[in-house]
Structure formats: structure tokens, C-alpha cells
């Protein structure tokens, strides 16, 4: 099984070798980094080992869901042997120790034992911690791989993998920006130490915290050891349950041949909302009219910095402007989404699709685009501003502008649609209009979005210039108002869609 990927062809073998090379390089760097901490303080060693161990545990759990590789030790392959679930689960878990990633963890574990031994921690305590951590990684990988095989097998696609990757980026990038922006100065920043302390009491980092806490407080180390053991027992029970289900459950028939080519339609739920969401995602990712609008947003947001810098506004203030502008434009973008359907809107009306399904389905692609973009850019901007206390302010302001704009756009796209370039036309070829309804609709949505976000903007300005205590008001007020306007706007837009179906079809035919 270890050499099978090298015999699958030239390209798979090259990809496997490249992956092994990257893993080997990362392992060597990790070992060198751990050994270099032998002369550092115990606090630094604690933070690094807990954060690194937690990341390893999370990676082993998330990798099967993201990659979707076929498990050569899938319990379903052993049905014909009539093996009991208990012994089979134990044997497969032990076989999971024979892998290249586990070999990398073993090398890191040896270095971790040497690190804690240099800080006076008993070798037995260090070995107990790394053994529990390694076993947790193995069982987490087995459980998540079994879950992926049972529930994602028929839905596995590039689209679903892409969603997992985007979700991972949403978590990894902000964390990386936060860590890179910290000023160490030979000591562990208080915020980072607090994060490590919290992770030490969670299933992800408890095992890796045992050696560090053993040196300072045996009682605290005992609580970490109890959490680690409980986690391992819970994963073992979950693994046994999944093996038992795989051996004694009859699977549903597979989907018809060719269903894997359905793309987003195979990922989305089989409901009117899911079908509309899948079709809308395809439009947003392939129609150049949508792509041009998306590409213009960051450019327009960055251009807003130029006049502010020219008039002498400090750069630390100016860097906070582009991200709220992006949130405003992202929320405004679908304000005429229905018109881009052209005559295809007849499918919704002829099928009797409810307005709420149409409204929610059309919001899915912009949410899939907007949330990751904002989640990645907000921490970067706050790091450039060099004041992390402004993070809640920026989150609240952007949530109010983005979500409020989406709620208003849900109403505007059915209440006041206006002609746009037809499918296949150039995005810059604007149709002739006999009236200024399009300009009015665009301006009204932008103005209304700013009015809705005015409280969050005002509290954010006060937090920036007067008292940082207003940051909580900006966060909760912005998020609350944004969610409320989104829900109300979606409901109103759905009601308008239900009442104006025939009129919308007539407008689409005449455009």
C-alpha cells in the first residue's frame, strides 16, 4: 500500500514524490526548530509545542475531508471475511501507524521529547504526551476518513474539495497573519500564551500540553492528561462504531453513471433552493459579465485610498478604508442579478418556484465569494493598521455593509430590474435605456446600504478616535443590523417575486 501510488502512472508518481519531498522538508525544518528551542524559556517551548501539536491534530482530521483519497483500509473491504468489529477496528487502527505522515510525526515526537528533557521534564512524562498525541492523530484520521467514505463518497467532487480548501484558508490565513504581526522580543506575547493555554484544555492540544504542565504543576498536568485520555477513548469508540456500521449496514445503490459530472448540482441539495444556488454559482464562475464585476471591486476599493492619501490622511487610517468599500460593493453586486438571467428566468416562474427559494439560492454564490474574501482581507488590514483591538470594529462594519447590502439587493433585483448586457455580449456593452431607472436603482441600493450601516460606522469612528470601548458596539451592532436587514430583505424580495412573476417574465422577454 505504501508503494502503490508510485505504480499508478507517471503523473501520480511525480505528484506523490513531490508531496513526499515537501513533507520531508517540513519535517526537517520542524525538527530543527524544536531542537533550537532547548535553550529558550519553558514558556516559549510550551506555546510552540501546543500550537504545533494542535495544528497537526487538526490537519490529520481535516485532510481526509479535503483530499478525498480512497482509503485502502476501508472497513467495508473486509465484509467478506466475517471479522468481528472490535478486533478489526483495533487491527486497522494499528495498521494506520504504518504511513509516511506518522513517520514524520514520530521524528517530531523524538525531537519534542529531547526538547522537554532539556527543560527538566521527566522523559516518561514527555513520552506519554507524544504517544497520546500521535494516537489521537491516527484515530482522528481514521474516523474522518471513514466518515468521508460513508457520507461523501457519492458527493465527492472538485467543487466540494474546493469548498473545504476555501474554508481552510478562511481559518489559516487570519491565524497566520495574527502570528506574523506579533512582536516577540524574546518573550511570548500575552495573547499568544492565552491562545496556547486555551488549546491546552481542548481535545486538539491536551496531549501535547502534558509535558509542559508536568514541569510546573502536576495537578494541571493531570487535568490535561485526563482530557487527552478521554479524547482518545471517545475517538476509539467512534472508530469502533463506524467499523461496526460499515460491516453490518447495507449501502444505498450508487448514483447513475455520469452523475459525477454534475458538478455543483451534485454538491447542492436536491431542492429548488439548491438547484438555483448551483446554477447561480456556475453563472458567477463562468459568465464574464459576473467575472468583470468581481474583478473591478478590489481595484475600485484600492483607488479610494489615493485621494485620501493626497489630502494628507494618515496611512494608518487609510488602510482601513478599502475592506469596508469591498464589503459595500460585494453586497451591492447582486442588486440586478435577476436581469442577468435574461429569458432563462422563465424556468423559475414556469416551475412555480417560491420566491424565498429564488432569493436564497441567488445569494449563495456571493456569500461563497464574499465571506472568504472579507475573512482573509480583514486580518491583513488590521495587521497593517497595527492595532488588533480594531478587529471587532472592522468585522462589524463589514458585516453591516455586506449583509445589509445583500438584503437590499434581494429586494431591488425583483422590484426594479433594468436592462444589462445579454448572455454572450461584452460586459462593457451597455444596452440602450429609455429611462434612468438603472442609475436610480444602483444609487438607491448603495445609499440605503450606507444608511443601514451608519450606526456601525459611527461606533467604529468613535472606537478609532475617542475610546476603543466602542468596538463592542460596532461589532454587535453591525452584525445584528446586517443579519436583520438580510433576513427582512430576503423575505420582502421573496414576496415581491411571488407577486411580480408575470411582470418579471415580460421584462426579461422585452430586454
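^ C-alpha cells above, recovered residues below v
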Amino acid at each position: 500500500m505504501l508503494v502503490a501510488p508510485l505504480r499508478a502512472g507517471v503523473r501520480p508518481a511525480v505528484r506523490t514524490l513531490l508531496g513526499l519531498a515537501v513533507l520531508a522538508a517540513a519535517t526537517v525544518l520542524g525538527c530543527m526548530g524544536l531542537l533550537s528551542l532547548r535553550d529558550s524559556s519553558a514558556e516559549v517551548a510550551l506555546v510552540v509545542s501546543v500550537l504545533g501539536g494542535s495544528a497537526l491534530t487538526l490537519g490529520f482530521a481535516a485532510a481526509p475531508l479535503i483530499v478525498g483519497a480512497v482509503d485502502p483500509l476501508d472497513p467495508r473491504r473486509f465484509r467478506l471475511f466475517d471479522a468481528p468489529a472490535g478486533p478489526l477496528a483495533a487491527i486497522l487502527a494499528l495498521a494506520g501507524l504504518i504511513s509516511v505522515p506518522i513517520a514524520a510525526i514520530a521524528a517530531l515526537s523524538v525531537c519534542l521529547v529531547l526538547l522537554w528533557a532539556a527543560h527538566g521534564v521527566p522523559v516518561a512524562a514527555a513520552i506519554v504526551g507524544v504517544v497520546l498525541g500521535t494516537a489521537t492523530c491516527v484515530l482522528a484520521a481514521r474516523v474522518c476518513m471513514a466518515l468521508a467514505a460513508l457520507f461523501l463518497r457519492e458527493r465527492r467532487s472538485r467543487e466540494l474539495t474546493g469548498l473545504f480548501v476555501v474554508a481552510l484558508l478562511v481559518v489559516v490565513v487570519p491565524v497566520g497573519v495574527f502570528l506574523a504581526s506579533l512582536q516577540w522580543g524574546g518573550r511570548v506575547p500575552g495573547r499568544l500564551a492565552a491562545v496556547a493555554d486555551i488549546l491546552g484544555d481542548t481535545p486538539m492540544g491536551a496531549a501535547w500540553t502534558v509535558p509542559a504542565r508536568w514541569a510546573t504543576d502536576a495537578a494541571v498536568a493531570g487535568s490535561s492528561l485526563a482530557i487527552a485520555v478521554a479524547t482518545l477513548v471517545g475517538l476509539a469508540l467512534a472508530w469502533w462504531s463506524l467499523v461496526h456500521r460499515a460491516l453490518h449496514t447495507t449501502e444505498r445503490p450508487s448514483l447513475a453513471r455520469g452523475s459525477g459530472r454534475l458538478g455543483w448540482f451534485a454538491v447542492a441539495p436536491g431542492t429548488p433552493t439548491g438547484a438555483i444556488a448551483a446554477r447561480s454559482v456556475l453563472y458567477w464562475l463562468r459568465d464574464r459579465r459576473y467575472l468583470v464585476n468581481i474583478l473591478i471591486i478590489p481595484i475600485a476599493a484600492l483607488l479610494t485610498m489615493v485621494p485620501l492619501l493626497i489630502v494628507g490622511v494618515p496611512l494608518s487610517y487609510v488602510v482601513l478604508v478599502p475592506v469596508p468599500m469591498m464589503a459595500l460593493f460585494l453586497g451591492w453586486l447582486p442588486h440586478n442579478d435577476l436581469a442577468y438571467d435574461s429569458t432563462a428566468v422563465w424556468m423559475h416562474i414556469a416551475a412555480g418556484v417560491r420566491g424565498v427559494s429564488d432569493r436564497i439560492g441567488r445569494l449563495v454564490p456571493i456569500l461563497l465569494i464574499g465571506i472568504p474574501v472579507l475573512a482573509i482581507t480583514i486580518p491583513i488590514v488590521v495587521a497593517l493598521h497595527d492595532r488588533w483591538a480594531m478587529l471587532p470594529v472592522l468585522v462589524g462594519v463589514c458585516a453591516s455593509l455586506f449583509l445589509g447590502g445583500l438584503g437590499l439587493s434581494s429586494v431591488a433585483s425583483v422590484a426594479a430590474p433594468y436592462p444589462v448586457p445579454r448572455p454572450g455580449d461584452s460586459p462593457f456593452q451597455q444596452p440602450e435605456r429609455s429611462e434612468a431607472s438603472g442609475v436610480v436603482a444602483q444609487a438607491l441600493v448603495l445609499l440605503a446600504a450606507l444608511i443601514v450601516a451608519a450606526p456601525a460606522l459611527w461606533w467604529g469612528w468613535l472606537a478609532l478616535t475617542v475610546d476603543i470601548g466602542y468596538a463592542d458596539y460596532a461589532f454587535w451592532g453591525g452584525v445584528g443590523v446586517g443579519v436583520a436587514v438580510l433576513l427582512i430583505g430576503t423575505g420582502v424580495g421573496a414576496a415581491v417575486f411571488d407577486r411580480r412573476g408575470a411582470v418579471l417574465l415580460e421584462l426579461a422577454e422585452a430586454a
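Residues 255-259 have pLDDT under 50 and may be disordered.
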